[in-house]
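Listing S7. Sequence submitted for prediction.
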Amino acid sequence: MIDIATQKQGEYISLTDIANRQGISNKYLEQIIGKLMKTGYLKSARGNSGGYMLSKEPKQYKVGNILRAMEEKLSPTDCVTEGCSRQESCKTFSFWKGLDDVISEYVDSKTLEDLMR
């Protein structure tokens, strides 16, 4: 997302160009792009000048939402997100819940534009 955001605005960026700059394979990048396309974060065009571009301005993307689109969840343990029958008696649940809250607060406070700076 940062690679695409830092390229010339209004132009589609080819998958191969992104892969070359980032040092990753096209096949792996296709998986990443696929997830980002499903969320509507990117738009695409086919043809010689086709490729990918952001659907919105970089300041409109929260880093937390991008990470969740890729990883599904950012919680340090499953008990925080999936619930646990032992929450009431668990000595560490409040620790994991607090850490989860701090992670979410931090990643949701940053935008793609912040990372570009």
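Caption to Listing S7: primary sequence and predicted structure tokens for the chain studied. The chain has a mean pLDDT of 92. The first strand starts at residue 42 and ends at 45.
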